[in-house]
Fold:
Amino acid sequence: MTARVFVPRDSAARSVGADEVAERIAAVAAARGIEVDLVRTGSRGMLWLEPLVEVETPQGRVGYGPVEPERVDGLIGEGMLDGTASGLGPVDELDWLRRQQRLTFARVGVVDPRSADDFERHGGMAGLRAALAMGPEAVVEAVVDSGLRGRGGAGFPAGIKWRTVAGAEADVKFVCCNADEGDSGTYADRMLMEGDPFTLLEGMAIAAYATGATEGFVYLRSEYPDAVVAMEAAIDAARARGWLGEHVLGSDLSFDVQVRVGAGAYICGEETAMLESLEGKRGQVRAKPPIPALEGLFGRPTVVNNVITLASVPWVLAHGAQAYAEHGVGRSRGTSVFQLAGNVKQGGIVETGFGVTLGELVEGFGGGTASGRPVRAVQVGGPLGAYLPVSRFDVAVGYEEMAAVGAMVGHGGVVVFDDTVDMSRMARFAMEFCAEESCGKCTPCRIGSVRGVEVIDKIRAGEDRDANLALLDDLCELMADGSLCAMGGLTPMPVRSAVEHFGEDFR
Structure:
C-alpha cells in the first residue's frame, strides 16, 4: 500500500525547512521499503505550524507540524505514514480552519499546484465553463450582482469596471493582474499563486470573455521568485489543456497570458504606475482621467484587478452571484483574505466573510501576541493603513465600517504590535517609507514626506512640540488633498491615527 503524503512547496514553508522535510521523508521511507506518493502542495496558511506534513487516511488528511527534518525518522517509526502517530488530528477539523469560509482559498494547501488534473478534480474550470454558457453580458452582471469589490485596496466594484471595459470600442483589450503585492504584512497573493495558480488563470479568462479581451499579463513582483515559477508552469499546463490560447475550451474565446516581473518599486502596485512599467517605462503614476478601463495598457481598454479579486471570480460563476453575496456585511459582500502578521502568536491566512471584528482576527484567530505581552496597536491595510488601539477591536471589518473609524481594509494585512512599540517611531516610518517609495511625480508626496520625517524628528526631540504637531497636521492635510495618487494621499492615515490614539508617545 502506498502512503500519500503532502508537504507544502509554499515559499514560507520552504523558508523553515519544508524541502528538507520532504527529502527526509522520501529517504527514510525508501530505506524502510515503504512506498510513498509525495505531493508538494501550497500552504494551508497556518504558518506557525510550518512545515506542516499531512498524510491521507480513510478519516481524511491527518496533520503533523511543525515538523523539523530531524523529527522525521521518529515520526515515521511511530506510524506517521499511516496517520497513527500522535499529531494534530484531521486537518479539516482543526478549529482554526473550521471557523473560516474558504471560497477563494478552498484549494490552497489541498491540491498539487502543478497538476491540472488535480485542479479539475477539485472543481477547477467550473466557473469558466459556466461563464461560457452564459454569454459575456450575463457574466459581467453576475460579477456586479455578487458585490465583489477590488481586493487590492481601493474596493471599487469589479463588475462596474468590467462593464466599462466591455462597453469600450477598441481593436484590442487587455486583462492585467496586479500581483505587485508590496504592502507590509501581506502575502495572500503569493500564497494563491504558489498554491492554486490555475484559479487565477481561470479568473483572468473569465474576465477576458466578459470584456472582449484577448491578451493578459500577470505583473509579478521580483521578490516572489517561487510564484514566478509556479505561474509560468501553470500557464504552460493551461495552454496544453486548451484553457489558454486559441478557442479556449472549444469556444470562440481566444486569450493568452504572460508573466512580467517587476523591478521592486512599491509604487508599481498602483494601477497606472504598473501599466507604465508594463509598457517598458519608468513606474510613475498617470493622471486620471482617462481611467485604465478606457485607456489603459498601450492606450487600450484594460481590466486591472489584483490577484485575489480575479481569483474570487471563478467561485462566483460556479456557485452563483447570490451565494457569494450571502457572505459579508453592508456593502462589503463575500469573503476577504486576511493576513495576520507582526507580533502575533498564530500568524497566517484567514478567509472569512466581511463583518468579522478586528478583535476576532487578532485574539480569536491570531491568539494574541507572540511575545505574550498585551496588544497595543494593530495596523490594518498595509504601510499606509491606520494604527488602531485595542479599544477599536469591536469594529466590524468592512470597507465602510473601517472608513467610519478613519481606517481602511486595504489588501487585508493585519500587523500586530505589543505594548513595547513606540508609535511616534511608527509614524516616522510611514513618512520615511513614502519618501523612499514615492515616484516623485507630484510635489505633495515627493517633498511632503521628506518634510514629514523632519517634523516628526523635531517632535520626538521635544522641540516646540505643540507648534510642530500643528505643522504636522497641516502637512498631512496637504498630502491627503494634493497628492496625485494613494501613495502620498494615504500616508497621513498612519501618522494621524498614531497621533490620535497614541498621543502620549509624541509627548
The longest strand covers residues 335-342.
